[in-house]
Each structure stands twice: as structure tokens, then as C-alpha cells.
């Protein structure tokens, strides 16, 4: 009987880790002991990020969801990533940015317990996010800060969320300086670094609620979501023009995940500009793909929507792991294994990118024929 040749599926490295000694760095531990299951996916994500995603020609967009800023991850992980040039643009929930502002204006959130009586907390004026506690007045004080800020002359017009958040970040940074508390606000750090920050659902947070309140008082601030859709598409188009590449790093899922990924269908499907999809896809999520939610949608499924380049599926990783565990480890690994990158300051180049998008759109219309005229109303 002929001997069967060795299967190509057995070409992976042997599982033979060194014993953990307690003296390991984070990269040592991830590379040596995170070998299988979702620990293995976290290792693959860390290695993909430092070996490929952080190359100079890659524009790195992040989507953020979940209670990251209340858990302190804005200060511990996101600000260091911004300052190292590892985040080029962001789509975040409004809630992350609202709770981020608490720290920047000198307010506190504290560690608590998850198994206490919520009725008792309510009677004592304490708000709970699982095991994070804060005084109800933190909300009221932040609301007052936002409304006073939005009365400023620079806010009395229509704008996209990147411009709105840039202005907010300047106010928060000035408050940090006045209080002498150092850098605590992720949004303020993004403003200083020229990182544009978008919110995919601007009405779905306390920031949006306060914008709505000021509108009742005659404030002329209006958020136009179309500006965000086109600006984010322009950022990705500019990244891919001339042979560059685009990466999507998703912490959690929800609306921010789709908003980062929909840039490619916006370019190709809606605007008719030739494009193949994002080049890199890294996500940390606890959502399953078989329940029908977008947060569990896989990179291969994203290919069918034109969100991912089908030739780049090897450069995709999904780790089914709690973001509050994954993000600090991912950050520590990246900062230990890769030198800081020069800041791309994409916020300052938004108009340049929009001009590129408009030129490519006009060329696509010329090439593909005129858009059908709407049927007149009867």
C-alpha cells in the first residue's frame, strides 16, 4: 500500500509553547501562548496589524461601539493609539464620545458592582453601566457644558459630524488645560492629531439629544448625515488612489461597523466609481453571524456587498472576544512591536478628498451614461 503524502493542512506550526514564567511581555505572551480558538484570533489580529496594516501606504479607519470610554479605554488604549499614528479616522457611537467628555471636563466615573440593587442606586442618584457607577449630576453637568458650547458662533450652521466633533474636541481640550488634568479625552486627542471622528447615528446619544434641545431654543446648528457619507467615502477613495490601501479595524459592531464598511459600496455601487473594497478587516465582537445581525457579519459576507476586496480575504481576522479584554492587549502589542507612524492629519485634507470624489464621480457619470431623470410629480 502506497504511503499517503502529508496533507497540506498539516503545514502549520506545531503547538509547543514555552511555559509561562510571569516575566513575559504582552507580545511574548500573545505570540507564544495565544495559539488557538479566539486567543489565536487575537494573536492573528495583532500580527496582521503590526506587520501589514501599519505600513505607511495604509489608511486605517476604526469603528468603535460599546461602553469603551466609561471603562476608561479612551485614556488607556485609544489616546495612545491616536498619538502613535495608528488611528487615521474614526466612526464612533455618540455615547462613547458623550461619556468621554465627562473625563475631559473634570468629572468622575467609578468602579462599582454589577449585583447591587438598582432601586437603591436610583434613590441615591447613582447611574450604573454594569459595574461602572457615576453620579446623576455627571450627566447634568455634561449636558450643561455641551449646550453652552453649542451656543458659540462657530456652531450656528449646518455641518457634518467630523467638523462638529473637531470643534467639540477643542472646547474639551481647553477645559482639560484649565483644570490641569492632563489628556483624558479621546475626542480632544483626535482634534489635536487631526483625526476626523464621525458618528453614524448623530441623533442616537445624549449629544444628539442636546443638539435637539438647542434647536428648540433657536440654535441654528444642524447635522447633515450626507456630508459624513460622502466624506468617509472620499477618505477611502483617496487612500486607494495611486496604489494605497485601506484598513477597517472594528471594536464591537453596530452602526459604526457598517458606516466604516459602507464606504466601498458607496464608491462602487452608488457613485459608479471603479473600486474593489477594503484591503484589511479586523474585528473584535461577541455577535454570532447566524442571528442575522450586522455585527456578526463576516469578512467573506462583506465581499458580496463590495465592502471587502475578495482577493484580500487572507488579510482578515474576526476575534469573538470581549472588546474590553482585546483592546488593551491589542494596543500594548502594537505599541511594543511597531514604531509610531507620522500623523496623516486627514481632518485637514477633507476638502481635497471631496474634490477627488467629485471628479471621479463626474468621470463615472460620463463613462457610464447619464443618471435617469426622475419621473415628474403629477
Structural features, described:
The protein has 378 residues and is of the alpha/beta class. The chain has one domain: Deoxyhypusine Synthase. A six-stranded parallel beta sheet has the order 7-2-1-9-10-11, sandwiched between helices. Helix 2 packs parallel to helix 14. The longest helix has 19 residues. The chain starts with 25 loop residues before the first helix and ends in a 10-residue tail after the last helix. The mean pLDDT is 94.
Major β-sheet annotation = 6 strands, parallel
CATH architecture descriptor: 3-Layer(aba) Sandwich
Distance between the termini: 81 Å
How much of the sequence is in beta strands? 5-15%
Count of helices? 15
Low-pLDDT regions: none
The CATH superfamily name is: Deoxyhypusine synthase
CATH topology: Deoxyhypusine Synthase
What is the CATH domain class? Answer: Alpha Beta
- Write down the secondary-structure element order: HHEHEHEHEEHEHHEHEHEHHEHEHH
Placed side by side, the strands forming the largest sheet appear as 7-2-1-9-10-11
* Mean pLDDT figure: 94
Quick one: how many beta strands? 11
Q: What is the CA-atom radius of gyration, in angstroms?
A: 23 Å
Which descriptor suits the 3D outline? globular
Which bin fits the share of residues in helices? Answer: 40-55%
Structure classification: alpha/beta
Count of domain modules: 1
Amino acid at each position: 500500500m502506497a504511503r499517503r503524502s502529508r496533507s497540506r493542512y498539516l503545514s502549520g506550526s506545531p503547538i509547543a509553547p514555552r511555559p509561562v514564567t510571569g516575566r513575559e511581555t504582552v507580545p511574548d505572551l500573545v505570540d507564544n501562548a495565544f495559539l488557538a480558538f479566539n486567543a489565536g484570533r487575537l494573536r492573528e489580529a495583532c500580527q496582521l496589524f503590526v506587520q501589514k496594516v501599519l505600513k505607511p501606504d495604509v489608511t486605517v479607519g476604526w469603528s468603535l461601539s460599546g461602553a469603551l470610554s466609561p471603562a476608561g479605554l479612551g485614556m488607556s488604549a485609544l489616546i495612545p493609539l491616536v498619538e502613535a499614528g495608528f488611528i487615521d479616522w474614526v466612526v464612533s457611537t455618540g455615547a462613547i464620545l458623550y461619556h468621554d467628555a465627562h473625563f475631559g471636563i473634570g468629572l468622575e466615573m467609578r468602579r462599582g458592582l454589577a449585583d447591587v440593587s438598582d432601586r437603591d442606586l436610583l434613590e441615591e442618584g447613582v447611574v450604573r453601566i454594569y459595574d461602572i457607577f457615576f453620579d446623576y449630576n455627571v450627566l447634568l453637568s455634561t449636558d450643561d457644558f455641551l449646550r453652552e458650547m453649542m451656543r458659540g458662533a462657530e456652531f450656528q450652521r449646518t455641518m457634518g459630524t467630523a467638523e462638529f466633533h473637531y470643534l467639540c474636541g477643542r472646547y474639551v481640550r481647553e477645559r482639560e488645560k484649565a483644570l490641569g488634568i492632563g489628556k483624558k479625552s479621546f475626542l480632544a486627542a483626535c482634534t489635536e492629531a487631526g483625526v476626523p471622528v464621525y458618528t453614524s447615528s448623530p441623533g442616537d446619544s445624549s449629544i444628539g439629544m442636546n443638539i435637539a434641545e438647542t434647536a428648540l431654543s433657536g440654535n441654528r446648528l444642524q447635522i447633515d448625515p450626507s456630508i459624513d457619507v460622502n466624506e468617509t467615502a472620499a477618505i477611502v477613495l483617496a487612500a486607494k488612489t495611486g496604489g494605497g490601501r485601506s484598513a477597517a479595524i472594528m471594536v464591537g459592531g453596530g452602526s459604526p461597523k457598517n458606516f466604516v464598511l459602507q464606504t466601498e459600496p458607496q464608491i462602487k455601487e452608488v457613485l459608479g466609481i471603479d473600486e474593489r473594497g477594503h484591503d484589511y478587516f479586523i474585528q473584535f465582537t461577541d455577535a454570532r453571524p447566524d442571528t442575522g445581525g450586522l455585527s456578526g457579519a463576516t469578512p467573506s459576507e462583506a465581499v458580496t456587498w463590495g465592502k471587502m476586496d475578495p482577493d484580500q480575504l487572507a488579510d482578515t481576522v474576526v476575534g469573538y472576544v470581549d472588546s474590553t479584554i482585546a483592546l488593551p492587549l491589542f494596543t500594548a502589542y502594537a505599541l511594543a512591536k511597531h514604531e509610531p507612524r507620522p500623523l496623516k492629519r486627514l481632518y485637514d485634507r477633507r476638502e481635497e478628498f471631496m474634490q477627488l470624489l467629485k471628479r471621479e464621480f463626474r468621470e463615472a457619470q460620463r463613462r457610464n451614461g447619464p443618471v435617469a431623470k426622475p419621473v415628474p410629480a403629477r
